[in-house]
Every structure is written in structure tokens, then in C-alpha cells.
Amino acid sequence: MKKPLLAFVLGIASLTAHAAGWPDRPVTLVVPFPPGGSTDQVARALAADMDQTLHQNFIVENRAGATGVIGAGFVQRAKPDGYTFLVTSLGPLVIVPHLLKNLPFDPLKDFTPITVAVSSPNVLVVPGNSPFKSVADLIAYEKAHPDKVTFASSGVGSSDHLSAVLFWQRTGTTGIHVPYQGGGPAQTGLMSGQVDASFQNLNTVLPYIQAGRMRALGITSAARSPLLPNVSTMAEAGVKHMVVTSWQAVVAPKGMPAALRAKVAAAFVKALGDSKVKTPFTSVGYDMIADTPDQFARFMKQDSARWKAVIAAGHVTVN
Suppose 93 and one of 74, 102, 107, 150 were both cysteines; which one would form an S-S bond, judging by CB atoms 3.0 to 4.6 Å apart? Predict the structure, then answer.
């Protein structure tokens, strides 16, 4: 057997053997965003639970920058040995590749899907004192006043930005996109009346809706949320094909052996099912997904194609 082939075979055999003893040293969960956001919260909840159940240190490391590309690239270059994972939102995996040229990796080819951890629908919200009382009110005004209604987002290419783009495509309307540096500033801008509307993750705006500082007009889930039972789905409001979810997932570097992938996926899914992890997330509007690697791979491919089409039709670009 030639030396390069022998080295490859021995390397695969070594990684497969490691599955039995995984984890026998600290595991790093890389978050490609700053601390404190939804993705960071998911990673830290998983790390805390797996610390206890697997009796090994799970360390969250924030490597923010370039809309998630820096952290994702770091994991893509790591060994597929089960000790480095990326915990990320959908952005770097299915949105950014269609916005940035010369991306140093292909998310559909250069990672090992592990599981989608959680998802959350977006809510179309307006300030609490807005004259818009329904989705129909907003659409009617947009049609009568093209390019007048302002929509806040956490940044170009975010799920809240693309939800607005999809909304305009589905309703035949237009508006003005106002990108902020993150979801918090976008929400502050909305509540202060700087902008007219926004699509925001349910989990982040639920307290403001309950306090009356925001009014929810519609939700992008397939069914009404039990947390907002009086808020119609976009389909019920007459906007078809507008089911949108923002999600967080776990991926590993490409090339992880099947036995190791199965073991780590089972560990992450078990953690997601623990009430100490599950309850805090479901109580604020998250859905626990915890799917299999194969299910995640199919879903990621479908979601990537969907956002590619929305971005192309909306002529969305990053300056």
C-alpha cells in the first residue's frame, strides 16, 4: 500500500477508534458571533448540560466577525475528531454564501451536519402606538405609498432583513430597509418610532409585545404560537408561502467518521431533550428540533436554495 493511502486509512481508523472514548478531553463549541445573542445562549446551554452528563469540559469560544465567516472558517479548518464544533445561526450556512463572493468554504460540502438545535418564527411587529393594527393595514398602506414604510433589521442578510424582502415579494409591495448593528438596536429603533415595522425573532421581542411596547401583526410560523394565540399566521393574514424560521444548529468539520458522528449527534440531541435546556427555550417561543444529521443535511440544502432565490429576486447585496 502506498504511503499516502496508508496514512489516510490509518487516520480514518484512528478517528473511528476515538468514537468509543469520546470525549476524553475538553470540547470547544465555537460561536461565530459576540456573547449574549441567541446563538451564544444555545451554545452555553448545551455546554453546561454536556459538562455534567459527559463529565468533560465543553468550552464556548466566541470568534465573531465577517457575518460569522471567521468563526465558521476556523471550524472548517479544524480536525474532524469531535473536539471542535460550530454552533451557529442559519446565516453563515444558508444566507451568507449567496451574499459574499469568494467565501473560503462551501457550507453544503465543507461541514459535517450534526443537528438543528432550535428554531423560532419571526413576528411582524410595529411600535405599540402604530396606526397599523393588522397585516392588511400595513399592506394597504404600502400599496398606496410605495417605498415609504421603513423596516428595521439586525443587518443586511439577516433573517429579519430577508423576511422583509420575502414579504415584499409575496405581497407585491416595496419598503425601505433600515439595517442596524444587531437585533437589540433594531428593536430600540422600532420602539422609539425611528422605523415603522420589523420582522424579529419571537423569543427576542415577546417581552416587549407583552408589555405593549410593540404590537404583533402576524407570525411567520405554520400555526399560531401558543405564546401569542391571538396573533394570526401570515397565511391567515392572506400572505401565502411566508413560513420563515430562524434557527441555530451544530456542525463539525468535514470528514467526521460515521461512528463518531452518530455518537456526538446522540449526545447533542440528548442535551436538547433535557428539561434544564429545553424549558427555558420553549418558554420564550423556541421550538426544539434535535433532528438527525441526515435530516439536517437535507433541510440545509433546501433552506439554502430557498434563500438563494429570495436574495436573487430581491437583488440583495452586501456593500
Answer: 107
